[in-house]
Design brief:
The chain has 238 residues and is of the alpha+beta class. The chain has two domains: 90 residues, no CATH class; 135 residues, OmpA-like domain (60s Ribosomal Protein L30, Chain: A), CATH 3.30.1330.60. Helices cover 55% and strands 16% of the residues. The chain has a five-stranded mixed sheet. Helix 6 links the parallel strand 3 and strand 4.
Amino acid sequence: MKALKVWAGILCAALVISGCNMSNTGKGALIGTAAGGAAGTGIGALIGHLTGNTKLGTIIGSAAGTAVGATAGTLIGRKMDKAAEAARALEAAQVEKTKDSNGLDAVKVTFDNGILFAVGKSTLTPAAQASLRKFATNVLNVYTDCDVSICGFASSDGSDQTNLTLSQSRAASVQNFLTGNCGVSSRQIKGTTGYGEDPNYLIYDANGKEDRNASRRVEVYLYASDAMIKAAEAGTLQ
């Protein structure tokens, strides 16, 4: 498992360059192949030591590692593809296959704050509550082996501190509703962060002007948990 996480980080840059056209299944296979190769090196070294034939050990280790790693990675990617497909059934939400800040394969579900909240408020609207209930029922409570991170963002209008506090409160409102009203386990949610009007996360239109409605948003990320990785390595991930 550790080898898989290390190599996933190493391959992050290459996979980002490839864009989102590659499915998570394909990405998982690439990550798994590299990770499996690293694990296979250790297996091959042990075989070489026991048999006294280091060349044979290298060949066996490389082949075994690649096969196991690719299989595990493919299973993880396939599971994340299913989660993305389930999320696409949601109304008023944009679903993308992406990479999170740790370089892990992820599904990003973006909720427009204009849908979730009134202007300047962090209290969920009735429509937002209905959308989040459906999100929990069809996605989070089905794919419980996905870890979850919730991120809140704001547009550039208003003071920095006001927007930071508001984005934090909105992200927390989503988490609290999911765990308090929708049956989502608090253990599944690994982080809730507000980014305010951080310029790195503002959204601009084709003319280079900020799309303030788009900048005001909450993003929910789903990515492979340790349990999912272990199940994939054991070949039991469904």
